[in-house]
Amino acid sequence: MGQPTTTASAWPDDPAPRPGSAAWEHPTALAVDSAPVPEYGSGSLADLLPTLAAAQGVPGCEHRIAELAPADRNCVFLIDGLGWEQIKAHPDEAPYLTSLLAGSRGGTGRPLTAGFPATTATSLASVGTGLPPGAHGLAGYTVRDPATGELMNQLRWRPWTPPHVWQPYPTVFQLADAAGVHTAQVSSPAFQDTPLTKIALSGGTFHGRLSGDERMDLAAEQLAAGDRALVYTYYSELDGSGHRHGIDSDSWRGQLMCVDRLVQRLAEQLPQRSALYVTADHGMVDIPFDEQSRIDFDEDWELRAGVALLGGEGRARHVYAVPGAQSDVLACWREVLGEQFWVASREEAIAAGWFGPAIDERVHGRIGDVVAAAHDDVVITASVNEPHESAMAGMHGSMTPAEQLVPLLEVRS
What angle do CA 361, 297, 119 make, to 5 degrees? Predict the structure, then answer.
């Protein structure tokens, strides 16, 4: 990759820009504090379950999302990849979801923020623990384990790491179950014994069901099984279709139609004194398959210089420098990518609140020496080391509205 693109000459008819013109200057990097930080503490995914459980009398939980009214029975239906902006853009495919938009977030018509990075492992941990990423510690798709120096994939849990050492806090489901609330998770049987489920979503009983219809029916039954109930259910296929085919595909639109039907099916079965909340872990953007939109780290000598490990994912990178090269790596990444990415040092990202208001000591070293979050429709791929992820059509992870904003649609009985 060559030098970063410069601004156009003020004299377009000249064969070359004149000295002193803007074209001879380095582009201005995006300011770290211009990134739209998630609404931690009052309107993020981490604030949802504590708010619901606090209203059910669960000790240790606080009412954080002021707009939400209490209910005896609460069901959270998390649809992987269902961003707020994607619902708004597809009213024909999602008429039922669209009809609920105005009442989102307690009737305000506003979304929640996912948290950074906007990726599944991070968001599910935020939902389940009620903590921001800087506390629960799942700070990206892959992050460096300070104890081993290896990259840890927190979605696939590779290499194996003791789950409750990596994430030691109790889940809200465990707190609710201990307080006598009927607590259940209804999801694919494949997720029952995964480390991510154990550290993020465990507590009460797990019910595995293969089909979406079965999950909706059983979730409604579990809601009715206690005077106070907290039920979680999940659907992943929309996200998978977006990654493979993009959100501008017939496959993705077909999955959205399926999701719309499932939400309505569950809503129509709610027992009395129930509230259903439909949310998501992140949105998604389609990335063109061209060199300008897909910058290949494995083929770019400038970005590789001084880098020991590349973590995160295409739109939310953790960059780990070789000892002594942190400042040079930051300067290079900022110079090459600064118009397209928010590029911050670890300390700058922490101070800006990207990962939450505070960082646990055990989490500090998991965050990259440099953190790069996409502003434009562009990704940093790694064709050699991440061939599967690099080939995806739809991606997510950053703080743009298309990725960061998620619904909090509400149905009450």
Answer: 50
